[in-house]
Every structure is written in structure tokens, then in C-alpha cells.
Write a structure and sequence with these properties.
Helix content: under 10%
CATH class of one domain: Mainly Beta
Largest sheet: 6 strands, mixed, barrel
CATH topology of one domain: Pnp Oxidase, Chain A
Protein name: Type VI secretion system secreted protein VgrG
CATH architecture of one domain: Roll
Number of strands: 31
Organism: Ruegeria conchae
Pfam families: Gp5_trimer_C, Phage_base_V, Phage_GPD
InterPro entries: Gp5/Vgr_OB, Gp5_Vgr_C, T6SS_RhsGE_Vgr_subset, T6SS_Vgr_RhsGE, T6SS_VgrG/RHS, Vgr_OB-fold_dom_sf
Family: Belongs to the VgrG protein family.
């Protein structure tokens, strides 16, 4: 091994999943930047005696930095090489600069648009990790998380999408490198200080200020600064849920800081709060935002030589002259500076420019130094809401979907399901999206207009506040599969509403109201596929034609033709029915029977002649109670029958036939005020019991 090549006894060395051995790649120095809820960035300067080293054999490989710590322990930093740059020759070695990132960074290289339904944020995160076979994560979560009915990732990297879910829920993370050698680091998900353990092997750290690092203890804090800043005192959120439109869905959370300034009443207000009617969830959302603000209020920063100091770990500071500073703290961020010291074969001077070399804060010759940020352990940490929230400002179109075998799929609110064109995972069924509300031209309390988009139709979707989780259907469109009901442009003057019978209706089965506006051919056409109901609560007036007397006849101006193939039922519940023909005649033709019932009085006035003809069959007039009166005041009454005419009252009758007249009764009286003539060729008067003839003068010839 050439002088200066690393060995396992070195205090700073590297290993990796690449094919080069430990004597072929040597670390010179590195800067590691970490923060709670953010991706680690590791910049490493590497030297190699192989002047033809292939960069592509390093890219995408895992590299681990090993650093000797206190009491024989070892501290590691691991990442995947995502960028490598050849800089120059340095003392006979090729100088390389490698950028290392955690596996979570890889999800910033992928974008997707998809829909998650009925899953918690944690379940969504686990699903995405599983899709990339990333199992190197650990859940140290204390809270339970509510299921999200509908959650959309829209044109976002998987990293941005997961980050905004975590920030909204109050989840953050850090990386654990304890078992990461030639394998990926572990992502630890947290939501409470209980997830953070003390620094390994040194839970208490002394404060030892001084400029000479050689005089300091090996594990101490040499610089310490505290700061406070003004933060809002209240977070208020409001939301709206159409199921409870009058409910006041306001929530708020107050700061828990001990600030005494006059600005604690300042409020951060936002709407919508992304919790709909779940005010309990809204309170949690507000509390998370407030805690993210509170986390900025009281901070510490410092410089230390504690090699075991890790982001996500806690420690207790002691020996600070200000007693209030001797407290328990959570490390929220850190920048580690690692370098080899001289004497390992690397000369300080180089014939080539040290192009791209890492910049350290000073040149004190220290092998290790960390600049860190911390906050009191008693304060909850929350990541600031920095992840971008996708906002959809334009229109989308989608296809209406539903259950197999159905033509219309809706709920009691008239909502629909759709499949977006960008959705690669939807199955075009009843589970493609959440229920989507449909805009209507007119809506009221049990009144308005209803038109439910049907399965297969293309619809226009917009998003409330641009939020992809809140789609609204604002219209419908024709396309090549769903063409207009009237052929265009041939029928461009036609306007109308044409439906289709469902389920299983054919093109000939529809209801329709169509308007033809072509000049000279104007037409309004109405079709009821089955029944037609019309209710007029007051007056109904129909005027056919206009004042024009030079046309008429069938099909002329002013004609009304009605054809009903089956029944016509007409009911007038209250009031009168008047039918008037001012000029012209009425013809009523009934092919079978006619029944007319009048419960009150029936009066018929005929100014001219009244002729009634019964071609076949009988005519019966029955008066159950009352009389029949026939009165020809200025004319005569003629009753003619081919066979007979018979009048009956009880047992009395008068019967007329073509050859005789028969009068029957218990008693018959014939009285003439002036003269009675009875004349025939033959006359018989017979009184079986008695015959009486009386007269002032009786003459028998």
C-alpha cells in the first residue's frame, strides 16, 4: 500500500458498494449537512492513485464514511453517490468530489399523478416506499392518523408529495446510520420528542469556550448562542362542508411560547383548512401549524467537537455560566466538517489547482468539528410547511365512470365518479375517484334543475381553490364517441334537449324538446317516450295561428293536429271546463264506446237543427228519479218506428204496430171537451160484466 493509503486503523476512512478497494479510494475531507425533516447532503473529497478511474463505476453506489469516536466507538455517515466530479491531480492522486444523498432523495427524481383513497398518510407513504422496494425506514410515531377519503398526487415528485403529507400531519424524519455500511441508511419517522434518544455514550456535554481547539476537551461545546424571534400567537382555520352548509367550522390553536412581547395576538388565518366537517381533525391541523411556528421561537446554535452528536438525538448541556442554558436540548440540524490531518502522506501543496475543493470554516487543523442547531427538548418540533402544494388553475376533462352494468351512477346529492385522463391506475369503475359534485344552472331547496352526467360522457372538472383533492364537475362535452343529437352543421339551426331511455334504451327511445329556428320552417317538437303529465294550477291558454284569413284547411295556418295512440285522461279537480268554437264545426268520432257521467245538471242548447243517428244497436234513456219532458213549442214531434212503439206506465200500456194500436189498463178514460169520433168499418164494444151508455141524447142506428 502506498504511503498515506487508508487502513481500518485510520480515524477517517471510506467503504462502499463499488468495486474499488479501500486502498484505491481515500477520503481527504467531507462536509455533512443534516436537518430534521430534510434530506442529508454529503460532499466528499476523495483521492485515488488510479488516474483512469471510471466515474460511472461510482455513480449510484453506496459510500460510507467511518470516523473514530470516543471510547473506541465508530461514527458513520452513509449515502448513495448521485454525482461525482473529477477535479485535478493532487500529489500524484486523482482528486474527486462526490455528492452523497440518502435513498429518500431518489424519490425526488420521480414524478407522478395518481389518486389514493381511504388510506392514512402513513399508509400512503408506506405504499410509495414499497413500490421502490425501499424498506429501510422505521416508524417512531406516537399519534394515530385519520383516514383520507381522497388524496391526490398531481404532477409532483414522490418526495414532494410525501413531504407535504408529513408536514400537514406533523410528521418529520431523520436518518440513522448505525447499521449502514455498504447498505442504505434508515429513515426514522417521528412526531414527538419521545422518538429521540440521548447521544450515544455521552448524554451530557460540557460547555468549554476557547479559541484554541487543542486546549478543549475531546467532547465539548466550544461555542453556544441562544436566540428568540417573534412568532404569531394564534393559528385559525376555517372550512366548509356541503353536508352541513350552515355549520361554522372554525378552529384555532394558541401559542405555547412564554414570549412577553405585544405581538402574541397576531393571527395566522387560512381557509380552507383541509379538514371539511371534521373539526377534531381541524384542531389538530391548527395545532401542528402553531407548533411549527412555536419551534422557531427559542433556538440554540453552537460549535462542538462531539463526534457522537447526531441530528435527532438529545443532550444535556452543563457548565454554562448562564444557568438557564443548562438544560435538555434536541439537535435539529448540524453541519459536520471531517478531514484527514497532515502526516498521512498528503502534502498540503499541489502543482494543480485545488478546483472545487470543499471550503471549511477555518483552517485549525481539526479532524472533526460540528456546527449544530438545537431547541429545548420540552418544545415539540414540527417541520415548517415548505413543501409546495400543487394548485390546478386550469380546466381538466374526465370520463364519467360507474359500476359495471349501470348507465347512470350517482348518489342522493347527484354526484358522479370520473376517471381523469392522467390517471394510469384507475379501473374506470365506481371506485375511480371520490364522489364529485356537479354544477347545475339552477339549484334551490327541493327545486332547481337536475341533469346527471352518464357513464361514458366526457365532463369538465375544475378544482375548488385549485386543490386537487376537491374536484367539481362544471360541464359536459361532446366528443367522437358521444356526438350531438342533431347532425351538424346540417342542423345548425336546431336547439333542444334530447334524452335516452335507461337502462338499455335504443336511439329511438327518448324524451325530447326541440326548437327549429330555420326561417320559414320554425318548429317546436315535443316527444314523451311513454307518458305525459301536465299540471296547470290556474289558467292554461293555447293560441294556434294568427289573424290571417286567406289560408285554411288541413295543414293550413292556424291548424292544430293531435294524435294519441293510447289513452287520454283529463281531470279538472276544481272549476269549469269551457270549450268554444267561434267559427266552424266540431266532429267527434268514437270507434267503440262512449260513457258520459254528469253528477250535477246537464244543459244543452242547440240553435239550429239537432240530428242524432244510431246506425246499429239500441238507445236507452233512463231517469232513476225525476221526469222526462219533451216540448216542441212552435213545431211538432214525430216518433217513427219500423216495428212498434210502446208506452208503459205500471200495468197500463199503449202499443202501436204497423197494423194495430193496443191500449191496456185497469181503467181507460177517453174524454173530449167538444166531440169524440170513433169510426171504423167494423166496431165491437164489449162489456163482459156491464156496458153502460149514457148521454143527454143517445142515438143507436
Amino acid at each position: 500500500m502506498a504511503q498515506g493509503m487508508q487502513s481500518k486503523e485510520w480515524p477517517l476512512r471510506i467503504t462502499g458498494s463499488y468495486s474499488y478497494g479501500e486502498d484505491e479510494l481515500v477520503i481527504r475531507r467531507a462536509i455533512v449537512t443534516e436537518k430534521l425533516g430534510e434530506l442529508t447532503d454529503i460532499q466528499v473529497e476523495v483521492l485515488s492513485p488510479d488516474k483512469s478511474i471510471a466515474l460511472d463505476k461510482l455513480l449510484g453506489k453506496i459510500m460510507t464514511i467511518h470516523m473514530a469516536a470516543a471510547k473506541g466507538a465508530e461514527r458513520k455517515f452513509t449515502g448513495t453517490i448521485v454525482r461525482v466530479e473529477r477535479l485535478a491531480l493532487r500529489d500524484g492522486f486523482v482528486q474527486l468530489l462526490a455528492e452523497l444523498r440518502p435513498w429518500f432523495w431518489m424519490l425526488d427524481q420521480t414524478t407522478d399523478s395518481r389518486i389514493f383513497q381511504n388510506m392514512t398518510a402513513v399508509q400512503i407513504i408506506e405504499k410509495i416506499f414499497g413500490e421502490y422496494a425501499f424498506s429501510d425506514f422505521k416508524k417512531s410515531l406516537s399519534a394515530s392518523y385519520q383516514q383520507r377519503e381522497y388524496c391526490v398526487q398531481y404532477r409532483e415528485t414522490d418526495f414532494d408529495f410525501i413531504s407535504r403529507l408529513m408536514q400537514e400531519e406533523g410528521i418529520y424524519y431523520y436518518f440513522d446510520y448505525a447499521n449502514a455500511e455498504r447498505k442504505l441508511e434508515t429513515l426514522v419517522l417521528c412526531d414527538d420528542v419521545s422518538a429521540h434518544k440521548p447521544i450515544e455514550g455521552i448524554s451530557t456535554v460540557e460547555y468549554r469556550p476557547g479559541d484554541d481547539y487543542k486546549q478543549r476537551l475531546p467532547d465539548c461545546v466550544s461555542e453556544w448562542a441562544s436566540s428568540q424571534e417573534v412568532v404569531p400567537g394564534v393559528v385559525s382555520l376555517r372550512d366548509f362542508d356541503f353536508n352541513t352548509p350552515n355549520a361554522k367550522l372554525d378552529v384555532r390553536a394558541n401559542t405555547k411560547t412564554k414570549a412577553t412581547h405585544n405581538y402574541k395576538s397576531y393571527e395566522l388565518y387560512d381557509a380552507p383548512g383541509h379538514y371539511y366537517k371534521e373539526t377534531k381533525l381541524g384542531t389538530t391541523r391548527a395545532q401542528v401549524r402553531m407548533e411549527a411556528e412555536d419551534a422557531r421561537f427559542d433556538r440554540r446554535r453552537g460549535r462542538a467537537s462531539v463526534r457522537a452528536m447526531e441530528v435527532g438525538k438529545t443532550f444535556t448541556l452543563k457548565e454554562h455560566p448562564e444557568k438557564a442554558q443548562n438544560d435538555d436540548f434536541l439537535i435539529t440540524g448540524a453541519t459536520y466538517y471531517l478531514q484527514t490531518t497532515e502526516g498521512y502522506g498528503f502534502e498540503k501543496n499541489s502543482q494543480d489547482l485545488d478546483t472545487g475543493a470543499l471550503e471549511f470554516p477555518d483552517d485549525g487543523g481539526e479532524m472533526f468539528m460540528v456546527e449544530f442547531e438545537a431547541q429545548p427538548k420540552s418544545v415539540k418540533y414540527r417541520s415548517p410547511l415548505t413543501a409546495p402544494w400543487p394548485e390546478i388553475s386550469g380546466l381538466h376533462t374526465a370520463i364519467v365512470t360507474g359500476k359495471s352494468g349501470e348507465e347512470i351512477w350517482t348518489d342522493k346529492h347527484g354526484r358522479i365518479k370520473v376517471q381523469f385522463h392522467w390517471d394510469r391506475e384507475g379501473k374506470k369503475d365506481e371506485n375511480t375517484t371520490c364522489w364529485v359534485r356537479v354544477v347545475t344552472p339552477w339549484s334551490g331547496k327541493n327545486w332547481g334543475m337536475v341533469s346527471i352526467p352518464r357513464i361514458g360522457q366526457e365532463v369538465v372538472i375544475q378544482f375548488e381553490e385549485g386543490d386537487p383533492d376537491r374536484p367539481i364537475c362544471t360541464g359536459m362535452l361532446y366528443n367522437a364517441d358521444t356526438m350531438p343529437p342533431y347532425a351538424l352543421p346540417a342542423n345548425q339551426t336546431q336547439t333542444g334537449i334530447k334524452t335516452r331511455s335507461s337502462k338499455g334504451g335504443s336511439a329511438e327511445m327518448f324524451n325530447e324538446l326541440m326548437f327549429e329556428d330555420k326561417k320559414g320552417e320554425e318548429l317546436v317538437r315535443f316527444q314523451a317516450q311513454k307518458d305525459h303529465e301536465k299540471l296547470v294550477k290556474n289558467m292554461s291558454t293555447i293560441t294556434v295561428g294568427y289573424d290571417k284569413l286567406d289560408k285554411g284547411g288541413n295543414g293550413g295556418d292556424g291548424c292544430l293536429s293531435q294524435v294519441v295512440k293510447k289513452n287520454v285522461d283529463e281531470t279538472i279537480k276544481e272549476g269549469d271546463h269551457t270549450f268554444k268554437i267561434e267559427t266552424g264545426s266540431q266532429t267527434v268520432e268514437i270507434k267503440t264506446d262512449q260513457t258520459e257521467t254528469v253528477e250535477g245538471k246537464s244543459t244543452r242548447t242547440v240553435t239550429g237543427n239537432n240530428t242524432e243517428t244510431i246506425k246499429t244497436g239500441n238507445k236507452t234513456t233512463t231517469v232513476n228519479t225525476g221526469n222526462i219532458q219533451v216540448d216542441a213549442k212552435s213545431g211538432k214531434i214525430t216518433v217513427t218506428a219500423m216495428q212498434s212503439i210502446e208506452l208503459k206506465v205500471g200495468g197500463s200500456s199503449i202499443k202501436l204496430d204497423p197494423t194495430s194500436i193496443t191500449i191496456k189498463s185497469t181503467m181507460i178514460k177517453v174524454q173530449a171537451n167538444a166531440k169524440l169520433d170513433a169510426k171504423s168499418p167494423m166496431t165491437t164494444v164489449n162489456g163482459d160484466a156491464m156496458l153502460t151508455l149514457k148521454g143527454g141524447l143517445t142515438m143507436i142506428n
